[in-house]
Design brief:
Layout lengths: L22 H5 L5 H10 L1 E6 L3 H14 L12 E3 L11 E4 L6 H5 L4 H10 L5 E11 L7 E4 L8 E2 L3 E7 L10 E3 L27 H5 L4 E3 L5 E6 L4 E3 L8 E10 L3 E2 L25 E3 L5
């Protein structure tokens, strides 16, 4: 039986989220000026309510199903790593493409709380989808995500007009490997690309003497259902899960409408190439939000 590829549907496919019908209903999800200013200054914005308890439960269940390599939609993943950790004693589950497979992880892309905030942080611009990710760190042996800039993995698109939303499905703490950021590092320019699940501190080798002085990470704990937005050049990473609890999250990566391909190569596994210089659009890169007035 052919499994339905949800990338062909550019709208909600379930009742997990409700689409606002009026401008006033959309505006309830807007970030404050202080929040936007914090993001612009520091390169990240923490503790944004994204999901309620029911939504969290549905998405956790979907991730549990997708972890099974026998799931009938598994071939739709762009990447699937049961363990991407460079340290064999730890585990980092990492996968791309879940939006194509299950309804909840598809519909989070159109969550009003997400798209309104994303548009604001991209300069009140229309928001287009890039790709999603799943990250799971099991209890006691969850692996690290090395310090990195997201755009260092995305140079096959330009200009730099990208945004990441990390959303936790469990309470995220220092002990279980919450995200860490270097405030203001989005102004450092593009750095060399480290191995994502390798040596956490590899990035230090790529920093100037001045940048090393300014390398002052902050831990950013979150509650389940809260998101952190960050600029695609902001340095971030996360440590091991040393706790008794899992640390599960999904990530939505987007860019400002108008970003183009900078490569004739395949951009995501299984997705037809977008000719260099051509606008990123179509089945796999849908427009998620035109704007409140759009």
């Amino acid at each position: 039986m052919l499994y339905k590829d949800l990338s062909t549907v550019h709208a909600l496919v379930s009742n997990l989220f409700q689409q606002p019908k009026t401008k006033e209903e959309w505006e309830q999800y807007k970030l404050t000026d202080d929040q936007v200013n914090f993001f612009n200054e520091n390169g990240y914005l923490p503790n944004i309510k994204m999901l309620d308890e029911k939504q969290i439960a549905v998405i956790k269940s979907e991730i549990e199903q997708l972890a099974d390599v026998k799931h009938p939609g598994h071939h739709l993943f762009y990447e699937f790593h049961s363990n991407e950790s460079a340290d064999p004693s730890t585990i980092l589950f990492h996968a791309l493409g879940a939006w194509r497979i299950t309804a909840g992880l598809h519909d989070v892309l159109w969550n009003p709380r997400f798209v309104v905030a994303a548009s604001q942080l991209l300069g009140n611009a229309p928001v287009r989808f890039w790709h999603d990710q799943l990250f799971c760190k099991p209890p006691k042996k969850g692996g690290v995500v090395a310090w990195h800039q997201d755009y260092s993995y995305w140079t096959r698109t330009k200009p730099v007009a990208h945004l990441t939303c990390w959303c936790g499905l469990d309470d995220s703490t220092v002990e279980n490997g919450c995200l860490q950021y270097v405030p203001g590092s989005q102004r450092w320019g593009l750095l060399d690309k480290p191995e994502l699940a390798g040596d956490m501190m590899e990035i230090v080798n790529y920093l100037t003497r001045e940048q090393r002085k300014e390398f002052n990470p902050v831990h950013v704990p979150t509650k389940a259902g809260e998101a952190i937005f960050h600029h695609s050049l902001t340095l971030h990473g996360s440590g091991e899960n040393k706790s008794e609890q899992p640390r599960r999250a999904f990530v939505i990566n987007v860019f400002k409408d108008g970003v183009v391909s900078d490569s004739d190569d395949v951009l995501l596994s299984g997705v037809p190439p977008v000719h260099k210089g051509s606008k990123m659009e179509g089945q796999f890169f849908p427009l998620l939000f035109k704007g409140i007035d759009g």
